[in-house]
Automatic annotation (TrEMBL):
Species name: Paenibacillus ehimensis
InterPro entries: WaaL-like (IPR051533)
Keywords: Membrane, Transmembrane, Transmembrane helix
This protein's record includes keyword Metal-binding: no
Full protein name: Uncharacterized protein
Presence of keyword Nucleotide-binding: no
Length: 418
């Protein structure tokens, strides 16, 4: 019964998130995806009031950084020009708070108390994604607009029943990544059957970002030991790394025609650089640069999560968010070096790739996207899972820590004297 009480809300949350990007009429599904999270948040909160809650030092650090980001977001409310913008900003801040405390504290502690394994959470996400993507394909069969002619590149792109081909590419990539994760944890080859299907949907959607990130995900995972240790060193020596990166950029500027490079990149990104620069030019005061514009309403999609954070919460808000995200990545890398596991290796690969994906899609930390929900819940579960818990649950770790049968007999044997 407790297992059902855990699985059903997770299914509803992920399914409503994916379905909200499809062509269903009305705002019911869009409202439900926030309603399901809120209800489950309140249920877990009421249940955990009388239960022992474990908060690791790592989580405490992330909570402190998140509080700083929240303060900056609240200060940015003063830049809102209408009551509607102020209300929208408050709702946005509320969703951030909801996602953070749900994924970092409530869900991991609930799973710990009821001994629910992380693989169970991954399986629920996997089957939900497969069903939703199958529904999008089936409904798209009767939709004459299942293919979309891109006005920029004149490519015929498949979107199924999604509202845009990029959404098809994003969730096909999500399914591809979760298929890798669930196979790595269970070693059951049946889960690999969906990998080529998701890859084919990415190919049909002609989403360059999704296709590039699939290649990047496979490349990162193949050379994960070198990539993870390099990133761990780069974050530990962040000052040296930033200085070296600055020197490389300065040297590159001397030998490259910057204007031609920017023009080529803008064309490759479907004029996104021009759109982003126009958004930044909308800042009128220094206060807006520092604390942001609040909730900016726009008819043009910004398609860059870092730009969204910069516009909404300013330079201080972007710095706080980057510290939180990079710190979470660093703690996972540190955990990987100390106690490696397949789930942690694949999760780290997904996290790194999604940080790149967020340059062209607003997905990294938001309650309105199933990818972000799954990512941060996975991060919270791993960061709150102690080594002692893994010794009790993971047979490989337990075998590595506990003495063998021969050693146990040898230790229990009484000494003999000649």
């Amino acid at each position: 019964m407790r297992s059902i009480a855990f699985h059903v809300p997770v299914i509803l949350i992920i399914a409503s998130n994916i379905l909200s990007f499809m062509k269903f009429s009305g705002d019911l599904i869009y409202t439900l995806k926030f309603t399901f999270v809120t209800i489950h948040f309140l249920i877990l909160l009421l249940y955990m009031i009388k239960q022992p809650v474990t908060i690791t030092p790592v989580t405490r650090y992330l909570i402190a950084v998140f509080h700083c980001w929240t303060i900056v977001m609240c200060i940015g409310l003063t830049n809102s020009t209408t009551y509607t913008q102020t209300w929208d900003s408050l709702l946005s801040i509320g969703t951030y708070i909801l996602l953070f405390f749900y994924s970092m504290i409530l869900l991991p502690n609930y799973m710990r108390l009821h001994q629910i394994e992380y693989v169970s959470f991954v399986k629920v996400a996997y089957f939900t994604i497969v069903c939703c993507m199958a529904l999008a394909v089936v409904l798209g069969l009767s939709d004459p607009k299942a293919f979309h002619l891109d006005p920029f590149s004149l490519r015929n792109r498949y979107l199924g029943f999604f509202r845009h081909p990029n959404f098809m590419g994003l969730y096909a990539f999500f399914g591809f990544a979760v298929s890798m994760l669930v196979y790595g944890m269970t070693k059951k080859k049946g889960y690999l059957l969906t990998v080529p299907l998701f890859a084919y949907l990415i190919y049909l959607s002609v989403s360059r970002t999704a296709l590039l990130c699939v290649v990047l995900l496979l490349a990162v995972y193949l050379v994960r030991k070198y990539v993870f240790r390099l990133l761990h060193w780069a974050i530990r020596t962040s000052v040296i790394s930033l200085c070296a990166l600055l020197v490389i950029v300065i040297c590159a500027v001397q030998f490259v025609d910057v204007e031609s490079l920017i023009a080529a990149a803008d064309k490759l990104l479907s004029n996104r650089l021009t759109i982003w620069s126009n958004f930044l030019a909308a800042n009128d005061t220094i206060n807006e640069y520092i604390f942001g514009q609040g909730m900016v309403k726009s008819t043009v999609s910004r398609d860059n999560y870092y730009l969204v954070v910069l516009l909404n919460t300013g330079i201080l808000g972007l710095i706080c968010f980057l510290i939180m995200a990079v710190s979470a990545l660093y703690f996972l890398l540190k955990k990987y070096i100390r106690e490696s596991s397949v789930s942690l290796e694949i999760l780290l690969s997904i996290f790194i790739v999604l940080m790149f994906y967020s340059f062209t899609e607003s997905i990294l930390f938001t309650l309105g996207n199933a990818v972000s929900f799954f990512l941060w819940c996975s991060i919270g579960i791993h960061l709150n899972r102690s080594l002692t818990a893994r010794r009790a649950k993971d047979p490989e770790v337990a075998q590595a820590v506990e003495p063998s049968t021969f050693q146990r007999v040898k230790l229990n044997r009484r000494p003999t004297f000649m």
